[in-house]
Input
Amino acid sequence: MVIQTRFDRDQKVWFHRGSQVCDGIVFSINVEVPYEGVKVKYTIQYNEDSGIVLEEDKVFGSEEEANCKVSFEEYKGFCESIENRSMYDGRGKGVDVYECNKCGKKMFTEYADKGVTPFCMPCDCGGTMTHNETSYCKVECYQRHGFKIIREWVRPTYDQFVKLSLGQQEHVMNGGLLLEGEL
Ligand SMILES: [Zn+2]
Output
């Protein structure tokens, strides 16, 4: 049986000790085989040289992850459920053109994942960029607008998700996508 572990020996990890988030180093990885299934245990060497044993689901790969309300397993399950949910799927349905009402700047976006995107968003100039057109052919979009940079709407990986603000995490858990360059 192959056991997948998320952590390596000597890797820095975070864990809960009481109400505090502490960090330590993975000292050794032990495997326990209970009545059913396989359980992996990590032995963590704590800062003060006091070796303590923690269950797998209480060890985290980053401080943000240790503080995140949504666990890795919950997020994985959520992402896998998206394909079966009834929501708009913009993949392969052209290039969305956003235009600023103040400076006239245009932005071109495409869906890399299935999910929800905003109708408007703030522009650097202080104005508002609104989705006012969809070009159904990429080549046509290039020719008409003379533009070659198309940004992608993506669902963040778990490592990216834990670093988002609470508001952005809520947006993602409601099916929302984010622009790739903003992660
Ligand atoms: Zn603008």
User: Anything to note?
Assistant: The radius of gyration is 22 Å.
